[in-house]
Structures are given as structure tokens and as C-alpha cells.
Amino acid sequence: MILELDCGNSFIKWRAVTSDGLNVCCGGVVAADEALVQVVQRQVISLSACRLVSVRTDEETARLVEALRRAFSVECVCACPAVELAGVRNGYKQYERLGLDRWLALVGAYQLARQACLVLDLGTAVTSDFVDAGGQHLGGFICPGVPLMRNQLRTHTRRTRYEDQLAEQAIQSLTPGCSTVEAVERGCSLMLQGFVRTQLEMARDYWGEHFVVFLTGGDASLVAGMIPEARVVPDLVFIGLAIACPLR
């Protein structure tokens, strides 16, 4: 099996796929290198290879690569910045400064769509990227996601304290909140939806109706209802990772 990793600043998303890359056997999210090694040892019979994308520091990534080498006797292939990949041209003036997870997601989206696309990644942070029909990345935006907005309010406003279970219940409706949890959660959701509407308007200014919207990230469900035509692809980064790091 092949181990694929998306190493963020806070969490590591992982999955194990068959050697042909066509079938996902298992996967999940962990918070630390040690937890990753343990869960993979429990759930994966054997590994033949590993590929990863990391937005961590070089030192942190190197420690993880060494831990995997010791535990599974595999050499990890790491995605690197690129000016161009699989027909997509990096739109950043300093191409190496574009987050690798964003880069791989937009490469993966373009390979699936083969036309202009808007890629929305709705996680801890929210990112959007525009790729035209010829594969030119036009740039994008970054803003706080719902988790960051919520945590900032909880941290800096003393009376904003509530349990996660209450937060889940609060967003069942978007009517004006009659409690702090409802006001915060629904306000954050509406800010997220407003951002997404702005991105859609911008994409229509570029391409009319001739583009595909991709949604990925843990909060994609919060806006999926407002874009029924969108393609929800949770593993979009891994699709790009396989393109960037072929193992055959």
C-alpha cells in the first residue's frame, strides 16, 4: 500500500491507497507524528511507499520523514513547489511562496475539470483559487475560516464561552441568534457564505457560467447547499499529490 499524507500546521490528514492508487483502504486525521505512526501500524498491513505534502517547516517535515523511515522502512517522496505542473502554471510572482496544499488542490481540480475552475478550500483557513481554461492560475484569496473566527471570539471575548455540541446545534438555522452561541456560530457561517458568494461573482465576471466550482475542506458542507452544482471533493489535495509525486 501507499501512504499519502497532507501535513498541515495543526493536523495530519492521511490515507492508505492500493499500489495502483485507485482504491482507498483507510484514512483519518491525527494531531501528532507519534499518533500517525501508531494508527498506521494498527490499520495498515504493509507499506510499499509514501508520498506527502507539507506546509510545516523543513525541520518538522524532516522529523516526520525520519519517523516514518524508522517505523515502516519507506522513503517518503515530498511534493515541491513548481512553476508548472500537469498543464497548470503557478500564478504567484514568487511561485515557491504559494502554499503546497493550495497548489496541489488547484492542480488536482484542473485535471478533473479540464476547464476554468474555482477551488474553494474551507478549513481552519479558507482559500480560493482561480484557474482559467488554459491552466493559468490567476491567484486567489486567504481568509480566516469558521474555526479561526470562532476561536478568536472565544479567546478575546470573555463572555463568549460554550461547548462544541452547542455550536453544532446552533447552525441548524441562520435566523438571528437569541443566545451567544447562536449569534457567534450563525454570524461566522454567514461571513463564510458571503465570502463564497463574492468568489462566485468574481468567477462569473471572468468566465460567465463556463467554469466548475470545487469544494474541499472540513467545512465544505456549510456552503454546499448554496452551490448545488459544485463538485465536493474531500481528497482534492491527494489527487494533486499523486500527480506531483508519481511512484511508478
UniProtKB/TrEMBL annotation:
EC number(s) on file: 2.7.1.33
Pfam families documented for this protein: Pan_kinase
Species, as recorded: Pseudomonas borbori
Residues annotated as catalytic: 101 (proton acceptor)
Superkingdom of origin organism: Bacteria
Subunit: Homodimer.
Cofactor: how and how many bound: A monovalent cation. Ammonium or potassium.
Molecular function terms from GO: ATP binding; metal ion binding; pantothenate kinase activity
Pathway given in the UniProt record: Cofactor biosynthesis; coenzyme A biosynthesis; CoA from (R)-pantothenate: step 1/5
Binding-site residues for K(+), renumbered to this chain: 121
One annotated GO biological process: coenzyme A biosynthetic process
Catalytic activity entry: (R)-pantothenate + ATP = (R)-4'-phosphopantothenate + ADP + H(+)
Binding site for substrate: 92, 99-102, 180
Record protein name field: Type III pantothenate kinase
Keywords: ATP-binding, Coenzyme A biosynthesis, Cytoplasm, Kinase, Metal-binding, Nucleotide-binding, Potassium, Transferase
EC main group: transferase
Predominant cellular place of this UniProt entry's protein: cytoplasm
A GO CC term assigned to this protein in UniProt: cytoplasm
Function: Catalyzes the phosphorylation of pantothenate (Pan), the first step in CoA biosynthesis.
Family: Belongs to the type III pantothenate kinase family.
Residues that, per the record, bind ATP: 6-13, 124
